[in-house]
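Researcher: For the record, we're logging two predictions in this thread. I'll number them. Prediction 1 follows.
Model: Prediction 1, sequence and structure:
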Amino acid sequence: MEVSSKENTHFFSNNTILPVDRSSFKSESSASKEKQSCCGGIKIFLGALSFVYFAKALSGSYLKSTITQIERRFDIPSSLVGVIDGSFEIGNLLIIILVSYFGAKLHRPRIIGAGCLIMSAGTFLIAMPQFFMGRYRYERFPSTINSTVSLSPCLQDKSQTPLSALEKSQAKINAGCEKEAGSSMWIYVLLGNLLRGIGETPIQPLGIAYIDDYAVEENAALYIGCVQTVAIIGPIFGFLLGSLCAKLYVDIGFVDLDSVTISPKDVQWVGAWWLGYLIAGLISILAGIPFWFLPRHLPKPEGRKDSSTSSEHSRFITEDNKDQGTSSWQQAKIAEMAKGNSLDIIPAVILSLACLLFLLFCLADFLPSLKNLFGNPVYILYLCASIIQFNSLIGMVTYKPKYIEQQYGQTSSKTNFVIGLINIPAVAFGIFSGGLIMKRFGVGVVGAAKLSLGSSFFGYLLLLSLFAMGCGNSEVAGLTVSYHGAKPMSDHEQALFSECNSGCSCSRNDWDPICGENGVTYVSPCLAGCRASSGTGKNTVFFNCSCVVGTFESSQSSSAVVGPCQKGNECPKMFLYFLVISVITSYTLSVGGTPGYILLLRCIKPHLKSFALGIYTLAIRVLAGIPAPVYFGVAIDTTCLKWGSKRCGGRGACRLYDASALRYVYLGLTLVLGTVSIFFSVAVLWVLRKKSSPQDETLSANGERGACGTKSRKDNFVNSDQFIQSTYWPEKETRL
């Protein structure tokens, strides 16, 4: 005891110098305050970024829910709607490289705030055409629009129509033509969506990198997972908002709703698509406000100051790349020393020249960094697989509402409600399950590649079963069936005319469907041979329709009502089966999202992480986001049976699709692209297996060493990165 007390006395006597103690206490106190400040600041940023992810996901998903509404409102084909949808990706393309590469050198929170303002301005611009173009006009027989003139649908002689009524109608058409000829208001929708893309660009690369820079390493993955989880909620509200607005008539508040003679089940119905954009724009403004008050830098956590302990190092990073990174660091240090020694003597002109040389140095470093990325076989193969898979998913979800409406006869409101309330929660649960599986079973990088490949394979296999879950074509006289019940001729325009309506002066361009008492839909009352009508508006009933009974000579009186006939009794059951398989497919594909992204992050150099994500996002947008909606739309247009006509001539939006052809084109194109992406995923797994020994995989399962990581960092990979979501994955999965 005495010896021990003497040793303690000697120890404290040698270490009780007051200045050292005070500095140590101050150091501990400042470190504690720094930690609290760091934690508080990063949590505020986390909350603000989560709200921004919610806002951008809401506006993006709302656009998907209004695709058919925009097509009908502006009377444009699906291919042009695809161009409008792809303009968002074009906006990203314009500045994604600059933002991802130089954004870290600027005030990142304020750049994100400015992006939110631009995004809200674009959202408001999309809604503006509603206030500058005239009221929505749809095709209807005059007697159904509360007309005071009694007209016969089958105009055997033009003289039976009062001259004043014809002149008035022609005057309205001419006035409308003058207005339509001088404006193409859909261009404003395209420009607004392009602005949305520009404003959204800095949110992902700068926001995620900011969290990764200033969060405690073991919390970074959790924070990023929280952001991506909140982003999943955005599409839910986006599609539900789309469902609500689709129930409201497009000109609500501007016209008397009692005078509207169409219902949401009619293919000419257009909901209040513009209203949701005003709401989404307001939310984007609110989301950007906090970023103007956040600091440029936060105190770095103590554990993150030593960059040598980063878990991003990978065995797939070659030694020469490591040497190159060291050399770049040494050059930066030499430049810093030179600048420090000459700062007091260099004139202002030479300082400007030095800034220019520094910019050139950054540009000179760009190409080697790009070469480094594309020299990584895992990165380039995973990039190819993602590009093709995104082509499949972007095209599929862009036109999914249209497919459900045309294939199963559902309204736009119900379609958006189903997608928002059923499909998207399944996606969120699938992403969570993917991260949970990796954490629970300690999945290594090779295991992550297997899990990603397996989810894609089984997801597209389930999608294959949807070919058997379609509805037949609606029975439309002259288009899908003849007036006598047989299959129509190949020339649908000529098949619209028959003996039963040969005595009527009908136009083949009209689309004013009525449902005959025999269960067959007719393109217009005139083509149905109807010679009398009673009632007004939605309650109009047509009588003496010679084509309804199938023969012109029949003396039996037959009738028809306004609107198309409903699809067969088996269609609701098929729609239920479709929903079940669609939900399971969404869940299965989303399980592989987190493992695939972990694979991407583990096989790139630490200092190239943001740049690699920027290139990844750029490639997805250019090679998938822009072209996929366009060529999917062109393919879908080929299945159209009946095109609408614009008031001044020319082809408008499609009124009726061949349900069987639409199913084969829509699902077939999706599956072909998905199958090709699976082959690239197999190649990724083959490269990983080739570069990793069986011993590495065994150790990886035990948590000692990963197939794509170093010995000392495997545990950090399992514990910290399993919940990192794909930069693009939430949007990718909401497209299911």
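Researcher: Logged. Prediction 2.
Model: Prediction 2, sequence and structure:
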Amino acid sequence: LLLLALGLAAAAKSPYQQVLQHSRLRGRQHGPNVCAVQKLIGTNRKYFTNCKQWYQRKICGKSTVISYECCPGYEKVPGEKGCPAALPLSNIYETLGVVGSATTQLYSDRSNLRPEIEGPGSFTIFAPSNEAWASLSAETLDSLVSNVNIELLNALRYHMVDKRVLTDDLKHGTTLNSMYQNLPIHIHHYPNGIVTVNCARLLKADHHATNGVVHVIDKVIATTTNTIQQIIETEDNLETLRAAVAASDLNSLLESEGQYTLLAPTDEAFNKIPRETLNRILGDPEALRDLLNHHILKSAMCAEAIIAGLTMETLEGTTLDVGCSGEELTLNGKPIIANKDILATNGVVHFVNELLIPDSAKTLFELAQESEVSKSTDFFRQAGLSSHLTGSERVTLLAPVNDVFKDGLPVIDSNMRNLLLNHIVKDQLSSKYLYHGQKLQTLGDKELRVFVYRNNLCIENACIAAHDKRGRFGTLFSMDKMLTPPTGSVMDVLKADHRFSTLVAAIQSAGLTENLNRPGTFTVFAPTNEAFRAMPQGELNKLMGNAKELANILKFHVADEILVSGAVNALVRLKSMQGDKLEVSMKNNVIHVNKEPVAESDIMATNGVIYAVNSVLQPQASRPQERGDEPADPALEIFKQASALSKVSQRNPRLAPVYSRLLARMKENVG
């Protein structure tokens, strides 16, 4: 077991090595030790390729071209395919000139670092590429080269560690003590294979030397001694953030050890928010804390590590989509990061020029305005109900989606206002805690029922169409239609609708009135007057004159469970009070029962739901054809088998005993 564990540990590769191995596989057709490299078109940025990037041919949404280069540590041999030869092993100074860091080699010579990295020892140097030195501002470069024995030497020694460190040793979130005053170098090794050193990306890694290892990086790194909190305190354009952090007591967190990413809103970002909204959040400690925690990621994320979109969790418990578009970082798809990769001892800071307000800090009005129920917001506002959507009242808004109002908003009168009040439920709810049969109280003093189905969660006739949005005081449920709260029992509703006068008379004649008035959970497929008129007059007279048969037919139209239309996707079978099954299905957005189209769905009652149908449904036993779901008569089945076997037995004497036994069984059943 120990040997197996050691074998597995040896086989486990770091993310960087896994990506390098994939690049080797893609390049092997060009010869040994050839790696496929993706180059961002129009730039000098190159990446070893992982599987996803290989097929997408994109990095940060931009197209790439594939080139084939020698893998780290190898070189070409004239006349031979690929890169068959290992680079000559020499000291670090000589290696710098071979791996694309000649400028670092030059500055090592000028700063008198050369004797040390040529001599005996075991070192690791994170060597800036030639392009990295060239990208420094003239002022910075001048301050280094004008004082080579102190500034330049110290800068180079900060890029060094006094031991051999390979990429497998560069663990995410660790620090290495540099050779300049033991100041820490911050390492991040991301799952996508990117390795950063103080947020500089490792370009070419693991170049072995006789006295150590050389890793080429894409930036000249600088020492960092400030925490995230100290960066906030010293930056001029973070004044509002500074006050907000102090008010929410987050100072200690941002000073503590750890690895965080702060998406720091600038003063400009705060100024873009309506003053009323900003004052409300700043004056509400819980909302303010949620706002700030929404800007803090749980891990340090350097910009160089983001080569495609990824979802990251915030301290507030929500997620942000962090991505990139070319050279720009994006948050939730928007390029709002103004300044990136400000390194701190406990993480990294990116300045953002837009405030990211989480749902938990928003009013119901703000939640609805930015969603698929924005028309509902206007509707409630026009009805004079805005105070319920903007105040500190704990409520849940059942807001119909915009498609419900594609033909315009209904006229607002007293009845409509009362109906809208019944779309606001007392208490702040979460749909995941709702249960079947639960009763909800509305601001309009109505009681709404919850129905839980296999494929939907419904409140009365309306079903939840999207995930909840939970705000500071209220929760938003997006509903697929306007609610119609029940106004009475099934009998009350039928009596109030002139379309069902014949049905009401039939129910009374059959003695079923009390049944449909009592508390219950009925689904009633109610034949309209038109349905009864469609019956042959003689058949109708016969039915109405036979109370027992009439009751039997009417019970076939009633099921003892509530099924609203939103629960019907595939075929749903309900057991009727008569005993036979009712088959309910959806076809071309029309509900059908026993293949008959429903004229109107979801007429809600306090003890059930009513569907208007323009035909009288017939139980199977009442139909002339044989019922397909009745158990077969055993004697008849045996007779059929016996008849078939009798013919066969005449041709095959071995079957005669079987035939005789079947005849005997038939006689027993008949007897």
